[in-house]
Amino acid sequence: MMTSGNPAIRLDNAQLAAFEQDGFLAIEKLLDDADLAPLEAEYDALLDRVAGELYANGDIRARHEELPFGRRFCQVLADYPDLHRHFNISLPLINGPVDPETYRMHTGAAVFKTLRNGKILDLVEQLIGPEIYVSPVQQMRMKPPERQLSESNAQHSNVGATTWHQDIVALLPEADETEQVTVWVAVTEATVENGCLVSVPGSHREGPKTHCSNLALASEPQVPGKLMEGREAVPLPVKRGGVVLFHKMNVHRALPNRSNDLRWSMDLRYHPTGQASGRPAFPGFIARSRSDPSAELHDPATWAQRWDEAREAIVSGRYQGRVFEDTRWNDAAVC
Questions:
Q1: Whole-angstrom Cα distance, residue 277 to residue 174?
Q2: Distance, CA of 317 to chain centre
Q3: What's the pTM?
Q4: For burial by CB atoms within 10 Å, which of 66, 122, 268, 293 has the most?
């Protein structure tokens, strides 16, 4: 279901019923310039800093500072395919030893502020209640035009293709009963041409799907195309600042970016406080508590420090558990 939004949106009974029936709800516009401008400024500064470092190290031949942000990101990514690792808002999903040089993420104050945005939390509260925990299962998707992608990035969903999947797929079994909600935020307008989401209505009521191992990227198992043949898929275009709400079992993917510009979005996930995130190696936090407001985290530096500590535990080998699930939903007979 698609609906328009306002700064203090309240979901009516029809919208709540549609989310229950379809497993998703698209809200055409929720966030405005005041919400998004700090994030855009933070990422503009981040790109400028990283491009400068790469240029100084001889990894790229030009900083491309004359280009606007979207075109500059696309160009620097084309020159240096690992660029996106500096921009994501969660650590890479790797079960096993990691390379400290590439095992990185961004933990800026504007990202933290977006995670705690009151308009988003107001929506989430209507779906899961007033005790809201920010899951560490977050992603930043910054997708150049498909034709500009290197072979190494074409199958990486942060910058390239997003295949059919359910959000439960990469969570450890501890989160099977967790009431996780995904809030997909459009930082730039999402259209059919530039790669908006498409979803299969009602698929969240069908249980877990077979997810085959992705040979190109182990962290992204996918529902094989032959299982999706003949299924109705609904495009979910939204304006800049729009959001799409998802049940964790909903089957969805993103269309390829066939435009000439960057398509930018965020995957933010929330669940009731006290329930398992399915990714215990990574830190979440309490964003809203009606029963105990003092438990809420308001300090972005503390959030960043928790991620630094999690990274160090993994890099050093102190954390011995699995970081994510990659084979549980595999079925050799289907794959």
A1: 8
A2: 26
A3: 0.95
A4: 268
| Residue range 299-324: mean pLDDT, rounded | 97
Q: 328: phi > 0 → left, psi -120 to 50 → alpha, else beta; which? A: alpha
Which tens digit of pLDDT belongs to each residue from 53-90? Answer: 999 999 999 999 999 999 999 999 999 999 999 999 99
> Per residue in 122-146, pLDDT tens?
999 999 999 999 999 999 999 999 9
The yes-or-no verdict on residue 209 having pLDDT over 50 is: yes
Q: Which of 38, 30, 298 is CA-nearest to residue 184?
A: 30
* Cα–Cα distances in angstroms (integers) from residue 248 to residues 23, 166, 176, 177, 225, in the given order: 8, 6, 10, 10, 20
CB count within 10 Å of CB 28 equals 17
Extended beta strands in 92-215, E state: 131-134, 139-143, 162-165, 181-186, 197-199
161 and 256 Cβ atoms separated by less than 8 Å: yes
Q: What residue ranges define each of the domains in the chain, with the CATH number in brackets?
A: 2-316 (2.60.120.620)
What is the DSSP code string of 119-141?
HHHHHHHHHH-SEEEE-S--EEE
259 touches 207 (CB < 8 A): no
Residues 6 or more apart whose CB falls under 8 angstroms from that of 285 comprise: 133, 134, 297, 303, 306
Pair 216, 269: CB distance under 8 Å: no
Which of 46, 277, 88 is closest to 167 using CA atoms?
277
| CA nearest neighbour of 165 among 192, 137, 145 | 137
User: DSSP letter at 190?
Assistant: B
Closest CA to 32 of 3, 50, 7: 7
